[in-house]
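Incident log, structure service

09:12 report received: a user says their structure output differs between two submissions of the same chain.
09:20 pulled the input from the user's history:
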Amino acid sequence: MRHIFIVLWMLFFAATPTLAQVSVNIGINMSSYPELVRVPGYPVYYAPRQNSNFFFYDGMYWVYQNDNWYASSWYNGPWRFVDPEMVPLFVLRIPVRYYRNPPTYFYGWRREAPPHWGDHWGNDWVQHRRGWDQWNRRSAPAPAPLPVYQRKYSGERYPQAEQQHDIHQQNYRYQPRDAMVRQHDQAPTVQRAPASSRQSREAPPERNQQSQQDGQRAAPPSHPPSAPAAPRSQPPQQRGEEAQRSAPAREQQRTPAAREQQQPRQAPVQHEQPAPKQEQHGAPHDPGRGQGQDQEKDHDQGEGHGQGRNK
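09:34 re-ran on a clean worker, output below:
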């Protein structure tokens, strides 16, 4: 049993920051434990001496203030907002006459009947809570016991929110029977803000559908396809050094034919090749042709001498 309390203590303090964020100041400040009287035929208590719509049902306190419902396990809060679709049925069924500070739109309604919540919250709420005002009055459950231990916690002795859970667990053994009350009791920190609660219910379906589609597009795939890991990239400087070191080795491994084929790509401008040896030194020597030329020269010289003598 001791280990169970230790675990609950750890879980409570882990959730304390979230609880502090959702608690709401609704303008009700009770200096001491209120007087509670049972509503005849209902498993509900109300506070006749308070100038507020203050009730107790199934182990929790319920307040209707500023067109919103709030709940708490302690008589002076902290209070947490309750969505109209999550208000317990027997809280909705409380007759109008037991609201000590009713809103103006309650006037004209039967005092022995519950408020016209369908007229106030609209058709969407009626569709969700159909049959809320129909039940067998003879089979109403017995009321939960009052947490009278809280009478000794008033004024400066009223515990802080982080202390209330332990004190309540040690002094109040009752477990809620209503399913909606259990949701509030077991997960008190999961609440929505009261601001614009009716606007969220009356929002057009096109806007809700568009927000859902945007969320689906923004959500990452739950099971991304597995892909082979890409090779690790190297810094540019390191790649350049490795390329310089590997260039001579690749040059040695190439065959002469490959180097000749690659040479025009490396040096696109070709230099003039020296002319063949026979083109630089003239045609090859012909012995017969040389002798004929010598004879022609001698003949020319003989003709020259003859002409000189004739002169």
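09:41 both user submissions now match this output. Likely a transient worker issue. Closing.
09:42 reviewer note: The longest strand covers residues 60-65. The beta strands are 37-38, 44-46, 53-57, 60-65, 68-72, 80-82.
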